[in-house]
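Dear colleagues,

For the upcoming journal club I promised to circulate an example of a predicted protein-ligand complex. I picked one with 4-(N,N-dimethylamino)cinnamoyl-COA because it came up in last month's discussion. The inputs are reproduced below in full, followed by the predicted structure.
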Amino acid sequence: MQPLLIEKGIRPGVALLRLNRPESLNALNRALVAELTETLLQLEKDDEVKAIVITGNERAFAAGADIKEMANDSAIDMLLLDQFQRWDQIKRLKKVLIAAVSGYALGGGCELAMLCDIIIASETAQFGQPEIKIGVIPGAGGTQRLVRAIGKSRAMEYILTGRFFSAQQAAAWGLVSRVVPVELYLEEALKLAEEIASMPPIAVQLAKQSVLKAYELSLEEGLHFERRNFYLLFATEDQKEGMRAFMEKRTPQWKGR
Ligand code: DAK
């Protein structure tokens, strides 16, 4: 069975990637992470794709890294494998990633969802960083991104106990944009991806980069980064087109230039 299913053009400008190891609740083994990363890097170069939705199935987005695969690894095996570079490659993607999460998003699954730009959750979604229960800690950003998303005290509580939290909690705490009925989570994510894909691509890219900098820079530096990108957009044909179309009361035609 293919560990990753790819549907390009499922909506205009949108690609859908489905994690597909249902027998292990989409546990992220090395082959799946490699294929996911390679596919994302290819889609990054594909002009027809503007936004990417990553999903699993109703029961699981992903229940974490594959415990069975890594159980006997040594620290040196881990170091030499250097799986983290793949996660860094995903982090550096310029195109928009939306996670459509239903069921379990645990450990590396929760970290993958948090690596995406937007999370849409089904009402059945359950999030958590349960690594502590198997003798480790989050290794792909969980201790950092969860704190930034839901605050120190809550992140500490859930990382130190490994307990899961619900879609509704995740929404109340700002980890996910919204919670929708289970039969709609993918549809809503695809609709959102299509809407973003219809926006001027360079502005989308620079908006994404600017928002992400809010995680990493001081307010002063972040404002500076935003301002430079704002100025830069006045060098695009799409800025001229967008403002002209507004004044002429017509729909803009984006060129992505
Ligand atoms: N790995 C491997 N197999 C898994 C799995 C996982 N994470 N989660 C579930 N499975 C498998 C189960 O073993 C079972 O397989 P069989 O026994 O049928 O062969 C099948 O999926 C169905 O699971 P259950 O029978 O357990 O189903 P339940 O409904 O009873 O329970 C559950 C669902 C999600 C509560 C439970 O399966 C569970 O607790 N799963 C483990 C969750 C977990 O601890 N996740 C964190 C894993 S550690 C790294 C990057 C990231 C990471 C590490 C390194 N690098 C870049 C190096 C991340 C680490 C983690 O995610």
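Two points we might discuss: The chain has a mean pLDDT of 97. Residues 24-25, 27, 63-68, 78, 83-84, 87, 104, 106-108, 111, 130-131, 134, 139-140 surround 4-(N,N-dimethylamino)cinnamoyl-COA (CB under 6 Å).

See you all on Thursday,
B. R.
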